[in-house]
User: Fold this.
Amino acid sequence: MYSKAELAKIRKEFWTTFGQYMKPVPSAFGHSKMNWQNYKTGVKDIYFRMKAERDFASIGIEITHKDEELQALFFQQFQQFRKLLEAETQEVWDWELHASDDFGQTYSYIQCYQAGLNVLNKEHWPAIISFLKPRIMALDRFWENIKPGFEE
Assistant:
């Protein structure tokens, strides 16, 4: 059993390791200094989220606009680019409009999920990194092509 402080330390160590591993990887936009673990889309209410937990790793796009109609509009825009996302990632992702988080907030997501990975087990870190790296790079390439459609 881990204390909250121990859990936080292990997670921080993982994300630092991931960041160091990704540091030499340039973005599709040509930026050589990318903060891959805290990817900034540059569009309000659209986030790329990576998670590494006790029993899974996931990566995805979260749409968090408070107005559910505008959230749905963003989601529909992404749906128009679904084939492009699948071409970049070479896989089918899960899509959900209007899910609820642990705090009752409504959000929508498009994600890829890998069960059986545990961030608390350092032996799983290479597998987690191998899961996240190609997908965040694919999201970056995807975003380079479609971002103009989301900018106001």
